[in-house]
Specification:
The chain is an alpha/beta fold. The N and C termini lie far apart (48 Å). It contains eight helices and eleven strands. Belongs to the glycosyltransferase 2 family. It comes from Streptomyces endophytica. Pfam families: Glycos_transf_2.
């Protein structure tokens, strides 16, 4: 609310009617738009894609942390033989469960992408290593003109509680390759917390079958000249179970993917992955 002072000035007040005195005081009425270029805030719909294989013990923590602003949650089940699907439905009755027909994380993500219906797609893991509460930061950058947003553990505000020396060394080596080959200035590569505009899915046309799909998406975004942003992200330890990642073999596949998709290299023709 607000009151008019004798001079005609507007004094803003909080719920109790007292004047604003601290920076923490909340204004109950929206600030007026002051410039001709000011536009009212827009709302874009968001699909969250979560591939999972035998993650029943991790799903409750992940699903309980999903912001209410997410419009659609898609769990891609990789033939789990535990209670992953039942647990997801129990924690979030509105979840859409899609069964993966192929194998590998890449196939699972593609299945989820094709099932998404919202304007933005966010991808994250089901093992509890990524905090869903960070999703609004990714959406903020998409709302402000970026096309592809990726998490980084190596910029201010980010970090990792689960990065082994082998993984750290491999990530730095692969990061050097992608920055040199694609003339980029990224700070992190092998981290699968990403978001992008669904309208670019056809152009990104992910094809990789395994964990290297994360690097493939980033390489395609750079090659296409999309506006790419990094946001700080804290990698947490897997809450339960064992990782499906194999650092050496998966690292080799990431390297092959980066070199194969480099500018001027031979790129695999689209296979209609993004067709609807």
């Amino acid at each position: 609310m607000s009151t008019t002072l004798p001079s005609g000035m507007i004094q803003r007040t909080v719920d109790g009617g007292r004047p604003l005195r601290r920076s923490s005081d909340r204004i109950t009425s929206p600030l007026p738009m002051r410039r001709e270029s000011d536009l009212p805030p827009t709302s874009h719909t968001v699909s969250l894609v979560i591939p999972a294989h035998n993650e029943a013990r991790n799903v409750p923590w992940v699903f309980n942390q999903i912001p209410s602003s997410i419009d659609e949650v898609i769990l891609v089940d990789g033939a789990s033989d535990d209670a992953t699907v039942r647990m997801a439905a129990h924690c979030l009755p509105s979840v859409r469960v899609v069964q993966q027909t192929g194998h590998g994380k890449g196939d699972a993500l593609r299945t989820g992408f094709l099932s998404a219906t919202c304007e933005y797609i966010v991808m994250m893991d089901a093992d509890g290593s990524m905090w869903p509460g960070e999703i609004p930061h990714y959406v903020h950058f998409l709302d402000n003109g970026f096309d592809f947003v990726k998490g980084s553990r190596f910029i201010a505000g980010g970090g990792s509680l689960d990065l082994t020396p082998v993984r750290s060394l491999g990530n730095r080596a692969l990061l050097t390759v992608v920055n040199r080959v694609y003339h980029a200035t990224l700070t992190d590569l092998c981290y699968g917390f990403c978001a992008f505009r669904r309208s670019f899915l056809d152009d990104l046309h992910p094809q990789a079958p395994g964990f290297e799909i994360e690097a493939e998406l980033i390489a395609h975004a750079l090659r296409l000249g999309l506006r790419v942003a990094e946001v700080p992200s804290l990698e947490l330890p897997r809450r339960s179970g064992h990782s499906h990642l194999h650092a050496v073999s998966d690292g080799r596949r990431v390297l092959r993917t980066l070199l194969a998709e480099r500018p001027g290299g031979r790129r695999t023709a689209p296979l209609g992955v993004g067709k609807r």
